[in-house]
Write a structure and sequence with these properties.
The protein has 525 residues and is an alpha/beta fold. A 6-stranded parallel sheet has the order 1-11-10-9-2-4, sandwiched between helices. The chain has a 3-stranded antiparallel sheet with strand order 3-8-5, with no helix packed on it. A 3-stranded parallel sheet has the order 12-15-16, covered by helices on one side. Helix 8 crosses helix 9, helix 11 crosses helix 13 and helix 14 runs parallel beside helix 17. The chain is globular. Residues 227, 229-231, 234, 236, 275-276 line the site of iron/sulfur cluster (SF4). The site of iron/sulfur cluster has 8 residues, from loops.
């Protein structure tokens, strides 16, 4: 079949043969291949909505295998794998296992790649247990692939399914990856249908959690879709069919979904996922919060992707309402304090003062700063960034908010930044090897000023500033004597004393003793 014929931009269940009442379907959330993975708020809401859609159409049998389902402690399994090895046949990596080697100017950073989530043998055993064999294959298999840099696990999964079921099952690949790069998905995976875009009929459906044997501890709720902006690094426009409009779900429906999940599964933790949650908040998101407060619903709320500071900083009433509705944590995005860099990313609606104001307003509403209740995302590893600017941003964010969440920048296919650097990526072969665009592998390292040591040091600096003692992080520009003295010592020549003492390691003990000029830190200051 020609690649274009495999790509469905308007996928509809009617495109498939047979009466739904006679069909069986298997839903799969693939494993993740990456150097790090956080299993928080990672419920596969897309595939859970497809499950709801199939139920609505009365499919005879629907099963879910979620490789990324956490255990009782909220963790997922992981084991090391080799960087460029395929696991379509092998369950385990060839030994010895090699790490990725990121190199620049003679320095090498080794990073191990892992398979996160349930293992291939576990999956095979589960299929067997379900009686899903070559003789009894599911009619349809729906796979949702999220990050484009995780594409390899979708490839391996589909090839494994092909080996098991042959051509008897129709394999449908959807999600963010095939929406952003449908031709890549059609060429490099063995899916029958590549869904590029939304499955419209599933959009407004509630995620169906009944497929899990053990009820999840939380649920993801999508109150709206779409964004009026088009930042150069964001794929929101492509994911919303090229449109820059926000579509809202009715407030009643959102509240009904949350109440149902509370009453049915005992879920109290809800994470809101939306491209731009706060757009026209007075008529939409605030109404949801008001209902939660008015009805005294016992929920704990989160918006793990962050709240836009330009809108948040407009309304103390909104921030107060977040607190009253029991928002547990606030995440404030702060890409950089470098205005030029922000302009190059088309972040025209956000200014630094918005972050500062939003942080202050959060504090006024009762969220504690410097205490992990208010956190700020800091984007680095960006094309053309200066290390000095990143350091300034780190210090600034640490001072204002007190807790930094470092985010290494990934150029996402289909975005303006990806297109701007496409010829560079193409030269490296990364337009095919999309996993190499993963921010954790520093795709812009070679064209940036910073060395490997510099980037490692940036992380150390952030971790150091994030450290807590008695529920607070240290404030570099605070007004305690310690903060004042710390700052003074950076500028009063004390570094010369430190440098002198650092030389001691290179001197023989007798020479050290003879060093009459050496003074103790106390004497010097
Ligand atoms: S980064 Fe946020 S504001 Fe910018 S386009 Fe994406 S969703 Fe919209």
């Amino acid at each position: 079949m020609a690649l274009k014929e495999m790509i469905a931009t308007k996928f509809d269940l009617k495109m498939l043969s047979k009466n739904p009442r006679q069909k069986s379907a298997l839903l799969i959330n693939p494993p993740v291949y990456d150097t790090q993975y956080w299993a928080e708020w990672s419920q596969p809401y897309g595939i859970l909505r497809i499950g709801a859609l199939l139920k609505k159409h009365h499919y005879k049998r629907i099963e879910l295998f979620d490789f990324m389902e956490t255990d009782e402690t909220g963790k997922v399994h992981r084991h090391k794998i080799n960087p460029e090895e395929s696991y379509e046949e092998r369950d385990n990596p060839t030994k010895p296992i090699r790490p990725y080697e990121i190199t620049k100017n003679g320095e090498v950073l080794e990073l191990y790649k892992y398979h996160f989530g349930k293992t291939w043998p576990e999956f095979g055993a589960w299929l067997q247990e379900q009686g899903l064999t070559a003789k009894n294959p599911p009619d349809e298999i729906y796979i949702s692939a999220i990050m484009s840099y995780w594409w390899e696990s979708a490839r391996d999964l589909i090839l494994r399914l092909r080996r098991r079921f042959g051509q008897k099952s129709t394999i449908i690949l959807g999600g963010i990856y095939p929406t952003l790069v449908p031709e890549h998905a059609a060429e490099h995976t063995a899916a029958d249908i590549v869904v590029a875009g939304e499955v419209e009929e599933a959009n407004g459906l509630w995620t169906d959690l009944s497929f899990y044997r053990r009820a999840p501890q939380y649920a993801i709720v999508t109150p709206s879709r779409g964004c009026p902006f088009s930042c150069a690094y964001c794929a929101s426009k492509t994911l919303n069919g090229g449109k820059q409009v926000v579509r809202y779900r009715p407030v009643d429906d959102i509240i009904a979904e949350m109440k149902y999940k509370y009453e049915t599964y005992g879920i109290r933790d809800f994470a809101f996922y939306a491209d731009f949650l706060l757009w026209r908040f007075e008529e939409n998101f605030m109404k949801v919060l008001e209902r939660i407060v008015r009805e005294k619903l016992p929920f704990r709320l989160y918006a793990p992707e962050g709240l836009d500071v330009s809108l948040l900083s407009r309304s103390q009433k909104l921030v107060d309402l977040l607190k009253r509705a029991n928002f547990q944590k606030i995440y404030l995005p702060c890409e950089s304090i470098d205005d030029q860099l922000l302009r190059s990313m088309d972040r025209r609606h956000v200014r630094l003062e918005h972050l500062v104001r939003a942080a202050k307003m959060c504090e006024k509403a009762g969220f504690r700063l410097r205490n992990l209740e208010v956190n700020s995302f800091l984007l680095y590893g960006l094309h053309g960034e200066k290390i000095g600017h990143v350091v300034k941003t780190i210090i600034f964010v640490s001072e204002i908010v007190g807790s930094i969440i470092p985010m290494l920048f990934t150029p996402v296919p289909s975005t303006a930044i990806y297109n701007r650097y496409f010829s560079y990526f193409q030269k490296q072969g990364w337009d095919r090897d999309l996993h190499m665009l993963n921010g954790k592998l520093y795709p812009f390292l070679k064209m940036n000023e910073g060395s490997i040591s510099d980037y490692v040091d940036l992380q150390r600096l952030m971790f150091m500033l994030n450290s807590h003692y008695r529920s607070k992080s240290f404030q570099l520009f605070g007004d305690t004597l310690v903060s004042t003295s710390f700052r003074e010592n950076l500028n009063n020549g004390f570094s010369a004393v430190v440098d002198k003492y650092k030389q001691i390691g290179f001197l023989k003990p007798t020479e050290v003793l003879k060093d009459k000029e050496a003074t103790t830190p106390e004497e010097e200051t």
